[in-house]
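Field notebook, page 362. I keep forgetting to write these up properly, so this time I am using the form the group agreed on. The chain and the ligand, DP6, are recorded exactly as supplied. Prediction of the bound pose follows.
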Amino acid sequence: MTEKDFIPQSNISYPKEGRIGYKAPSNIALVKYWGKKENQIPANPSVSFTLDACATRTVVTFKEKTPADEFSFDLLFEGKPKEDFKPKIETFFNRVAVYLPYLKKYHFTIDTSNSFPHSSGIASSASGMAALALCLLEIEKMADATKDDSYFDKKASFLARLGSGSACRSIKGSLVQWGKHSGLERSTNLFGVPYPHKVHEVFKTYHDTILLVHKGQKTVSSTVGHNLMNGHPYAKSRFVHAHTNLDALEAVFASGDLEKFIGIVESEALTLHAMMMSSTPYFILMMPNTLQIINAIWDYRKTTGTPICFTLDAGANVHVLYPEDYKEQSIAFIQEQLVQYCENGHYICDKVGQGAKKLNLK
Ligand code: DP6
């Protein structure tokens, strides 16, 4: 498929007004997307667990307006107008306008809220952009019955990617791969695809407890961080490394080899932060408590043999990953030894999920 396949035919007749809602989850990358080319094309492929509890709920109301010459929308976040989110949405509208040619026909009210606190340091752009992309695409779905669900899933992921790269992995569950990779036949830079190879049962119920080490705003945004991979001295080898890790994960996902899984996932997390520390300008997003948690996980794993590990986003918070069979002891360990490193003792229990869902609106 190419970008052109996502431009709808011009003879479709769109509804005059309507109301649509979607709930889309966040996701956590196992092989990280870090570095991009123009038009939100990733510099390397990535793969993520779709999450469940951390999600954005968005309801879009639309009504035809005249003239249809510019974008028009109101944005409500948790029921209140939120002006500072508007530029990001405006940029998104501009990027997707050619694929959703009806956007200027309507005035939209976008009413959005997160299941997790906004100031938790958890990126809401993946779930937020996925939910918005789905709502806007639903208008096309209402108007054009000739396209199947597979087309809409791909297009939703394609649109979400134009809002925030990682958002393209938040449409479907439970393991999603994004980015061209020779080992994955149907892989593409344009949208995320459900991981096409064998996945062992153990990975279908994996847990992710997110330890909120720092709830404030990040000092360097992901977008800035991605751009610093241009001309980065280790960029080339990092991109090769991501491909190698994806290849290695194929056997790991099939066999359920948790030792190898842990080795790849933790290395990916630390490599991501190593890229930040070796950018020009360099920066550090981990905090002292991030390292305390990592060391405590390593100690606990060594002494008990529990297959618990960590991964990191572009921030100080730690995602603690463990299989369903080790849930009880992992939670006990987190509560006894790790919660002390969280801001106000806050953490979120999440697990692998099945992707976005349409809301039943009354
Ligand atoms: C470290 O998707 O937030 O979480 O495309 O600029 O919106 P933009 O970046 P974003 O980057 C995510 C980076 C990451 C790794 C990952 O999720 O793969």
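OBSERVATIONS:
- The chain is about 35% helix and 25% strand.
- The chain has a mean pLDDT of 96.
FOLLOW-UP: compare against the apo run.
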